[in-house]
Design brief:
CATH class of one domain: Alpha Beta
CATH architecture of one domain: 2-Layer Sandwich
Oligomer: single chain
Low-confidence stretches: 408-420
Mean pLDDT: 92
Strand content: 15-25%
Structural class: alpha+beta
CATH topology of one domain: Zincin-like
Distance between the termini: 44 Å
Largest sheet: 6 strands, mixed
Length: 428
């Protein structure tokens, strides 16, 4: 925060700056044609600038006698308004034309999603780094502005050890960027498919676990630190619901605001917030590089009962989620306690992860819907669980699935190319 603007800024710049919080419009404080003492700054051969930053662990600033200085505002949920300064070189005007609106949206959206922004301003600058963050200060063009603003939550307010556990910093940020992008585009976020993708990366010998020190992440550091956490949280949302994940993450952010949580603190908090013992989940996602490998082995019907034999060849367990599609006509469909009808001919049936804890590699799901013919069964219809081979996830078998499994890569970081197939529709 600049403390002595009356000593270093012109009267014109101070007057323009005084209107920063008046509206969402972007205002110019110092224009490209305003250069030199008396025009861009106060008069004098030497000016001493006095800055103060409270509750910060790092700090940075930028300086140039060529900067254009624009300003806008962001209205944080709860009513506070903070100025957003935009400093850029005149030749980069296009790169920064939408920076103010993007940063404004990010501050407002993440404040609503997790917890209110905890600093009195934010500055985005045209600096030597295309994407870097400090408390109240980011270096970025418009392309990375949302991501860099997200770092104000972690590690700037929730003080994670980003160099050891990059997933708690970059990974959580990548996840929330998906939500912010969807909101900015006026659509609901879709986190389907993400969790399943990890199945085609699992087993790559170059991948370190999330708990491996990110300083030594190796050739797949970017996947370990940035890409894997969104896949993990996609699966978690497939188990408890995405909105439950967001609510628990919000509680975690508030509980650890300006503190220093470890991965264990995060996992224990999420268990308590979600009301579940997810030790198995955290073990496999944080400490291993294992995956799920589901298949539907057989489907048989006798009278009003259909038996679906599910096999699990992976080391990571997960709930058994089946999408059952019935014939359009026939006897009434009977309700099942662990089933939810999503339309007149489609049910989602869920069995808890506990079915695998006895050590069996197969599970028999007895569908008691009555004599209505079942035309199709799909396991993991929302593609949330990291499956190494999705070609055997449908009954009857889909001949195109095996070919799709050999399609172009989706993750860009592992040797397996499989793009995979998601048979289901977006989760409600």
């Amino acid at each position: 925060m600049l403390r002595n603007s009356e000593e270093v800024l012109t009267a014109r710049a101070r007057e323009r700056l005084s209107h920063a919080l008046d509206s969402d419009s972007v205002r110019t404080v110092v224009g490209a044609d305003e250069r030199g003492p008396g025009r861009s700054t106060a008069t004098g051969d030497r000016l001493r600038w006095h800055f103060v930053a409270d509750t910060v662990g790092d700090f940075a600033w930028a300086t140039s006698n060529q900067y254009v200085w624009d300003v806008t505002r962001s209205t944080i949920p709860g009513g506070s308004r903070v100025p957003v300064n935009i400093l850029y070189l005149p030749g980069n005007t296009e790169r920064y034309a939408q920076a103010g609106p993007v940063v404004r949206h990010a501050l407002e959206f993440y404040s609503q999603l997790w917890m209110p922004y905890g600093f009195p301003q934010l500055t985005i600058v045209d600096g030597p780094e295309a994407g870097m963050e400090y408390p109240m200060f980011i270096m970025s063009g418009v392309g990375a502005a949302d991501h860099e603003t997200g770092h104000e939550w972690w590690p700037m307010m929730v003080g994670t050890n980003e160099t050891w556990y990059g997933f708690m910093d970059e990974g959580f940020n990548q996840y929330m960027n998906i939500l912010s992008r969807a909101d900015r585009q006026g659509r609901a976020p879709n986190l389907d498919v993400l969790g399943q993708r990890y199945g085609r990366t699992s087993g790559d010998e170059r991948e370190g676990t999330l708990m491996w020190n990110a300083n030594y992440g190796g050739p797949m550091y970017s996947f370990q630190a940035y890409s894997k956490a969104p896949l993990m949280l996609s699966m978690l949302g497939g188990i408890v619901g995405d909105t439950a994940v967001w609510h628990a993450m919000s509680g975690y952010a508030k509980a650890w605001r300006f503190k220093h949580p470890s991965p264990w603190d995060y996992a224990f908090f999420m268990d308590n917030a979600l009301g579940r013992d997810l030790g198995w989940f955290w073990y496999y996602w944080l400490f291993t590089t294992e995956s799920v490998d589901y298949s539907i082995q057989n489907v048989t019907t006798s009278g009003g009962q259909t038996a679906v034999i599910v096999r699990q060849d992976g080391q990571m367990p997960s709930p058994v989620v089946l999408k059952v599609r019935f014939a359009p006509r026939g006897p009434a469909i009977r309700p099942m306690a662990n089933a939810k009808m999503v339309d007149s001919v489609t049910a989602i049936v869920t069995y808890p992860v506990d079915v695998w804890f006895g050590g069996s590699r197969t599970f028999r799901a007895d569908l008691m819907f009555g004599p209505r013919e079942i035309e199709q069964v799909i396991i993991d219809p929302f593609c949330r669980f990291p499956d190494r081979d999705v070609s055997d996830n449908m009954w009857p078998r889909d001949p195109a699935a095996a070919e799709a499994q050999r399609g172009p890569g989706m993750m860009g970081g592992g040797p397996r190319g499989g793009g995979g197939v998601c048979y289901g529709t977006s989760a409600p």
